[in-house]
Design goal:
419 residues, five-stranded antiparallel beta sheet, elongated
């Protein structure tokens, strides 16, 4: 059996079922397009005989009572029309495909339809039949190559085929093939990544695939922002944090768990960089020239202005925060929160620190804590402010600290992890 055959039939059905179902339907649609010329019977009766007219006659009969390619039954008259088509026009690839379909499940059927596909890559009837054929055998490489062919011929098929390509990514065998295909920058690439974000089972291999591409000539971009949002939405913080290897480290962050802790750089990839709010009530921006996080809030509002996803192993830590102004405006308040970002049942560690001036707070993540990934959030409140509020934060760091009597484990009130 071929190397690209999956391990079991149930897994094959899971991975390639969408491709096979879409192909069977689209193949019949493509076959119906062959008979688009009006009155093929008249054209076939002309002299000299028109091979493509015979081909359309055969296609017309074949599609009349069928719902998909698998249901097609050719009458003797249709088969004769297909044979006549090839006698008068050797390049009538659809006619050759119909002859292959007439062979049912015999090995000859696949041989004939493979030949028809090789004759004309723009003829999507053979393409669709072969997608179903190889898909039921679990053969990754030929299915993906055929899907690529179909999408290059007719980009409009992406709506039907993209869920199948995203489903295929569940199978690790598809990784090198998809990497090669995406490396050619096909027009369907954005639709593929969009479909992947809607398939949680594909996300682990999506991270692997994208990492391989970024190790080459590819650069971080919208695809990575899309995947990052999908990882966070699926609570796959491990996949999100794996992207750190693609981000340039900053010298001032040496030994510090918070990236861009001095606000000297613009956000590159949130939430591994600062994810900034802009909802009309509370907004934030990084002024890298001054090295501050600038936050604004209208009177009566309160919300998280900026947040970042980090990993915190068990140990002793110190949180440092430094305001970028002498004092906060009347009725305003800044809270820095550290809380679990994972969907873990039970109460998890949480730290809340109010900033009225510079802060240094020691804390401990206890050994055995099930939470590995945390949100660091900066919340600006103007609930009691008489007017709009401007607040500046100059630094926010979390570094390893020494064990001290004052270093207590994070309190664990009941709290729902943030999305």
């Amino acid at each position: 059996m071929s190397e690209d055959v999956t391990g079991s039939m149930p897994r094959t059905i899971l991975i390639w079922g969408l491709a096979s179902l879409a192909a069977l339907w689209l193949g019949l649609t493509a076959l119906g397009g062959v008979m688009a010329t009006p009155r093929p019977s008249v054209a076939a009766a002309l002299f000299p005989a028109n091979g493509f007219a015979y081909e359309r006659l055969a296609a017309n009969e074949a599609t009349r009572e069928s719902e998909n390619l698998k249901d097609i039954k050719l009458s003797q008259a249709s088969l004769d029309d297909a044979l006549n088509a090839l006698r008068h026009e050797p390049l009538a690839s659809t006619a050759l495909t119909l002859i292959g379909l007439s062979r049912g499940t015999s090995p000859d059927a696949a041989k004939i339809i493979i030949r028809a596909n090789a004759m004309d890559k723009h003829q999507l009837v053979a393409n669709a039949w072969l997608i179903n054929h190889y898909g039921t055998e679990g053969r990754a490489r030929p299915v993906l190559n055929l899907l690529d062919e179909a999408l290059r011929v007719n980009p409009g098929l992406s709506e039907r085929y993209m869920p199948a390509l995203a489903q295929a990514l569940i199978d690790p065998q598809t990784l090198p093939v998809l990497q090669q295909m995406l490396g050619r920058k096909p027009g369907w690439a954005p639709s593929f990544w969009q479909a992947v974000t809607g398939n949680p089972a594909s996300l682990p291999n999506a991270e692997v695939l994208r990492a391989r591409m970024l190790a080459g000539a590819e650069e971080l971009g919208q695809t990575d922002e899309l995947l990052m949002a999908a990882f966070v939405a699926a609570r796959r913080m491990d996949l999100a944090l794996s992207y750190q290897k693609h981000l340039k480290p900053f010298a001032e962050d040496n030994g510090n768990l918070v990236r861009n802790s001095s606000f000297n750089e613009v956000t590159r990839l949130a939430p591994l960089d600062w994810e900034l709010s802009s909802d009309g009530r509370v907004s934030a921006a990084i002024d890298e020239g001054r090295g501050v996080l600038e936050m604004n809030a209208i009177s009566g509002s309160s919300a998280v202005a900026a947040r970042q996803l980090i990993a915190i192993p068990p140990g002793n830590y110190v949180l440092y925060a430094k305001l970028g102004q002498q004092s906060l405006g009347t009725g305003s308040d800044i809270q820095v929160r550290v809380h679990c970002a994972e969907a873990i049942s039970g109460t998890q560690p949480r730290l809340d620190v109010g900033l009225t001036s510079d802060v240094e707070r020691a804390f401990v993540i206890p050994e055995g804590s099930p939470c590995r990934f945390y949100w660091v959030e900066v919340e600006l409140s103007a609930i009691d402010a008489p007017g709009p509020v401007l607040a500046l934060l100059a630094e926010l760091r979390i570094v390893r600290g020494r064990a001290q009597p004052s270093s207590a484990p994070l309190p664990t009130p009941a709290a729902t992890p943030a999305p």
